[in-house]
Amino acid sequence: MEKVTEIFGSMVFDDLTMKANLSSDTYIKLKKTIDEGAPLDLSVANVVAEAMKDWAIEKGATHFTHWFQPLTGVTAEKHDSFISPSNDGRVVMEFSGKELIKGEPDASSFPSGGIRATFEARGYTAWDPTSYAFVKGKTLYIPTAFCSYSGEALDKKTPLLRSMEALNKQALRILRLFGNEDAKAVRTSVGAEQEYFLVDKDLYAARKDLVFTGRTLFGAMPPKGQEMDDHYFGAINSRVAAYMEDLDTELWKLGIFSKTKHNEVAPAQHELAPIYTSTNLATDQNQLTMDVMQKVAEKHDLVCLLHEKPYAGVNGSGKHNNWSISTDTGVNLLSPGDTPYENAQFLIFLCAVIKAVDDYQDLLRIAVATAGNDNRLGANEAPPAVVSMFLGDELTAIMDAIIEERPYSASEKQTMKLGVDVLPKFAKDNTDRNRTSPFAFTGNKFEFRMLGSANSIACTNIMLNSAVAESLRIYADRLEGAEDFEAALHDLIKKTFSEHRRIIFNGNGYDDEWIKEAESRGLLNYRTTPDALPHLLDEKNVTMLTNLGVYSEVELRSRCEILLENYYKTMLIEARTMTDMVDKQILPAVESYLGDLAATANAKRQFNPDLKLSHENRLITKLSECADMIDQRNLELQEVTKKAESIADAVEGSCYIRDNILDKMAALREVCDEAETMTAEEYWPIPNYGYLLFLV
Ligand code: ADP
Ligand code: MG
User: Fold this and answer.
1) 70 pLDDT band (50/70/90 cuts)?
2) Which domain holds residue 507?
3) Is the CB of 279 under 6 A from ligand 1?
4) Which of 195, 276, 465 to mutate to test the pocket of ligand 1 (most atoms within 8 A of CB)?
């Protein structure tokens, strides 16, 4: 095998490659665009494009694509070849600066929630030079943003970049108040831990539910599930190990810092963690990781399931968004400092996050709301749908001391007055002992754990960056006008801690008692996607997001509609897949087994008319009762599905599904799974859970 250090980033047009392939003059100009957003001359873009093309062709590329993240959640790409006719009737390979900077994909088939209808028919993609171009397969990928001609964002990257800019601006205001004149930029970084399942390709192909919906809609529990707790961090079997090795290599080539891999709690479940990087890059890299995971699986005759809940009865898959804020000079603003002065600055940023999470619980919940994730949140294996924060004992003690204006520990003589020179020095506590909190402080970063495995991390980070920018904006307004900075700072920190104490919860987030307590604290509990999403348009949310320039109101409306529509369509596909499988596979299988049982019984009776056929009688009676129930519940599901299909309004349609279809799907599954346990294995038409989970 090639050396890791050599293959890492070998398919990326990164800084090193740029330096090697561009004149120093062009490199400097491009760098200015990347670092400071300076506009790039077309003449320079032409030179960059030419160099990029030559490099890409050397790596085997014949095509290029503007790669973007439309609102569907997956990434989109349209491949154009470099070829261009030449005078001698042959072709030359060409790629111009114009093609690099701007593309015009046929946008009409991407969801826009009405934006394009209202404004312009076409959209365009614009090169995002802050994320490196790369070669995958035979194509040069150019990361881009996707906008309508009237400027509305039709993708997830544009608002993400805007949210990063909003946070940058407000955080710099705070840093200046602390006398920091060096920092030129404040950026957020993210490390996204990704969970996934692997399943054998042939078994997958034999299940319409997996093929059409990404999850199993039927399946009785096998004799063994995850109860032995023997899978988490267990030895990785050789087929999976070969997959992971290949996956790492492919990710490394693309410059993705895949670092940790291990087995997860459920059988056939695994996790990949990258080393954290700038939020924009982390978002692109996570999308790419999900894509590569699926591609590499094919080579190993496996399928990689990114659905949040592929199997009932074992854990689902999530994604952990580890998030921190730091300066371009390398200071992590969420890291408690070595001096009281640094700690005052740390506390104000901590407060900004606490206030943000409490004020915008709904936006964080909305950011992870999908049909798939609804199967997971609040299901005893994942955080509940209630957002709360874990701070750990020490920080909580400090917070309470500040609220009550008393010494923070027995050894501290002075009260916690935040005149910065009396703030105590406190130890960095890097141990996160709470794995059940949706939003946990883990020493120098926050880990948001509500994301589903298939979610794009863009939405979460857009909301998180924006909400924190809003807290910082309010703080900066207050502090810039203060006569006595230290007194104002103290008041602000105390006020934030007092007003937002309710969002802090260090206990077991999976406990039912907590849900009751959370409700008594006034925390929101939006259990399902249709409960959560309409609140995107609540006045306070629209005001905050539009004032910061992250979204326009039109963009927010379109997003709300698209997300609800997505839920509605996903659920209808699931309901139709269920009834299809019942009609064409499950009922025929049960009937065929019943027929053979009856035939056997008859044959036996012919042989001996007095024979008591207790086994056949019992089974035939129970199984035919079961078949009748399946039929009845199937008809009921079909009826409500038809009704749901006739609803045009996205809000109404998704609420109808929540109230009428979910229960019926669960009821139908229940009797089908019961029938599975009574039917001989050779008759059952789809691979069972035992094979799916244990034959990887
Ligand atoms: P675990 O959550 O399993 O305890 P770690 O805390 O080591 O593991 O890291 C989990 C993820 O957090 C990794 O992707 C890592 O790169 C990322 N991470 C570590 N430090 C930071 C940071 N300062 N900002 C953002 N992400 C970070
Ligand atoms: Mg983690």
Assistant:
1) confident
2) 163-551
3) no
4) 276
